[in-house]
Amino acid sequence: MDTEEFRIRGKEMVDYICSYLDTIRNRRVFPGVEPGFVHGKVPDNPPIEGEPWDDIFADVENIIMPGVTHWQSPRMHAYYPALTSYPSMLAEMLTNAINCLGFTWASSPACTELEMIVTNWLGKMIGLPNEFLHNKDSNGGGVIQTTASESTLISLLSGRSVTLQRYSNLQPDVPLFEIHSKLVAYCSDQAHSSVEKAALIGLVTLRYVESDAEYSMSGSKLLEAVKEDREKGLIPFWVCTTLGTTGCCSFDDLQGIANVCQQEQLWCHVDAAYAGCSFICPEFRKWLKGVDKIDSIAFNPSKWLMVHFDCTAMCIGRYL
Asked: Which residues are modified to N6-(pyridoxal phosphate)lysine (predicted)?
């Protein structure tokens, strides 16, 4: 495909997208297909030669669309919001054309600096303290991750690193692996499954704290679990506080939990993937009380702010 054909096909794609979204309410939301329905319609082996674009595009409507769950349909009420918008689509087109990697400032200066500015915007929008923003008076700041699951893992590994360093300084004769083997992380029994996966990857024990009648983890229950584990010779080090659980949108007691974490020197991470964007509205910020005592927070603009997956804003209160 050369430049001129790309211009033509690009306009055709825009027309197709507009038509798709304008008529999406007429499509069946959940496809009436059986597992394996694509097999037999798409070759098992990769083609030796490319096919004409018209043939490929015909497969989209004839093969792909019949098996799509239409998340943008107004009749879609499963899972959680996954909103998009036309400006987001245009931005995706441009970023895919630039196709740069922003892992350092030198790899793409504009990418790095814009990310810092936008994460500052997001932090200010939901009312985060100054230490979670990029500025000369702060040691923290935000970064855009792909998912809240990734942010949970990064947070756990960060907490693990800080704790291992602290205990290694206190007990220089004790091998790191011995300290590591005693580490314990905590979360509510309503927390997202990614917390368990993060603990598995981080090779630490995860303890679920029983939630109350409102499916919320309290600071008192957390403290009780922490004290029990300390008596066993274990090392509590990290807590995941959920603000908006996936199952029922319950909220853990952030203020109580943050106080315990500060008292017990535990890394306090807030998973606000689902409900975090609602804190843009001041009337919902009661759930954020105690945020000034946490270490990290993650929330998903890709759920309520009409930008594409994957987009998670992760802000930390200090650099390691």
From this structure: 303
User: Taking the CA atoms of the chain, what radius of gyration do you get in angstroms?
Assistant: 23
Number of residues written out for the chain: 320
Strand stretches in 189-244, DSSP E: 205-209, 235-242
pLDDT in tens, 23-79: 999 999 999 999 999 998 998 899 899 899 999 999 999 999 999 999 999 999 988
In Å, how far are 33, 225, 314 from 140, measured between CA atoms? Answer: 48, 29, 11
**How many domains is the chain built from?**
2
- The answer on 121 and 68 residing in a single domain is no
284 burial type by CB count under 10 A (0-12 exposed, 13-18 middle, 19+ buried): middle
How large is the angle between the packed helices 193-202 and 148-170, nearest 10 degrees? 40
- Domain C-terminal end among 36, 62, 78: 78
CB-CB neighbours of 26 under 10 Å: 8
**CA-wise closest residue to 6 among 99, 97, 98, 85:** 97
Query: d(Cα 276, Cα 298) in Å, to the nearest integer?
Result: 8
